Amino acid sequence: MRNMTNLEYSFLVAELAPLVTGKHFDRIRKISDGIYRIKIANLEILCELGVRIHLTKYIEPTEQTDKFVEKVAKELDNAKLREIRQVNRDRIILFDFDTAQLVFEMFGDGNAILVKDGVTVVATKYESWTGREIKPNQPYSPPKNVPAEKLELTDKYVIVSLMKLPLGKDYVAEALIRSKIEEKKPGSSLSESERKKLEQELVKIKSEVQPVVFYENQKVIDFGLALFSKYSKFTVQKFKSLGEAADEYFSKVEKPNPKLEKLLSRLEKQQERLQILMEEEKEFKTQGDLVYANYAKIDALLQLAKAGKFDELAKFKLDKKEKSLELVF
Q1: Every domain of the chain and the residues it spans
Q2: Does the keyword Coiled coil apply (predicted)?
Q3: Low-confidence ranges of the chain (pLDDT < 70)
Q4: Burial status of residue 152 (CB atoms within 10 A of its CB: 0-12, 13-18, 19 or more)
Q5: pTM above 0.70, yes or no
Q6: What is the pLDDT of residue 302?
């Protein structure tokens, strides 16, 4: 089972907006830990923190509750929804009612926060970071780190730069496949034609969206907004909306072992971090090899500098104020 991405949340908000804007909050239910269902008018919206938000036709009976549910029910009773929007192109969905705001932060393990007059009223969990905290009676603000607005290629793997865009791994990987570019190719080494092709495919993926669900031997495998190449041999079913596709997928996909899923999620994050570190190691090794290969020259220059013979160093880019010397080999 996978989590919804930035692109999918953006599409979902566009789907939900005309259906729920101007309608009234009816109720909120706790299905289980981290899973809530809210009703706006006659529409049921399921939220599994950190995983998914979408309309659902599967209504599970429940008698569970918690302080978050009780407070939200009280503050939003019959409140009118003014707007639903995605915050900063990130995995944050905000339901703006006329009495308060219900914010779903869908990254990491997820969180749900009730905000009134810019201040946190209640949340499913309280957290604190440098420059940001989620605590009762404290101002609420979304994370400062936001997805990139445009593609900026560097010496690191091209997939690393693409992951900074508000799309999701499956979508950027698909763009690379369609562009015939290897994920681990340094971004700065892309030719002009490769870069142009990649940008074209990224635009296509965002504009030519089609909600689908993939099946293998009648078993649900995945869903998305694109015909992923990795599922080219699988059965594909198109849906009228992403909400329907997501509801189909999450209702039928094999539910993972929570402990195993947590370990796999941690492993995926570690692999992504390892990929970045490997790139940095490669860069530092190149710098180290350059210094080693020119050690004699560097040592001679250092001796001149220590002796104060700056006139002999004049042919180099010497910054006495910053006490730095730029060498070009």
Answers
A1: 6-134, 294-329
A2: yes
A3: 256-258, 261, 310-329
A4: exposed
A5: yes
A6: 78
